[in-house]
């Protein structure tokens, strides 16, 4: 197995992807997923349970990061494996700007069978929102 830093080269970094989440996106996701938990739409409820405000659905956040992976891979069926752990919620303000998620990736290794292992970083407001985020993809065609 070859690592992305063999031969004293810098790690291969993929282009950063940026996604914006607004309250309208949360409403649409709630309708599609059936998850109408008030922490995803009511500031009063969210702060009442100790959150800093309305938060994005974790699975929606994970899906946006997954979108970046499929864009890098070139096709959804090129994603062989994808795992994350949530570290902090994405707070979505009640304004026209919403919240912005930035997704970056570095190639960790290329396996003998040509699969590409990625280490992913997802941030919102400069804070990491995922830990141990990794993906394995087939090379783009």
UniProtKB/TrEMBL annotation:
Transmembrane segments: none annotated. GO terms for molecular function: fatty acid synthase activity. Residues 17-103 form the MaoC-like domain. PANTHER family: (3R)-HYDROXYACYL-ACP DEHYDRATASE SUBUNIT HADB (PTHR43841:SF3), 3-HYDROXYACYL-THIOESTER DEHYDRATASE HTDX-RELATED (PTHR43841). Belongs to the enoyl-CoA hydratase/isomerase family. Pfam families: MaoC_dehydratas. It comes from the Bacteria. InterPro entries: Fatty_acid_synthase (IPR003965), HotDog_dom_sf (IPR029069), MaoC-like_dom (IPR002539). GO terms for biological process: fatty acid biosynthetic process. GO terms for cellular component: fatty acid synthase complex. This is Acyl dehydratase.
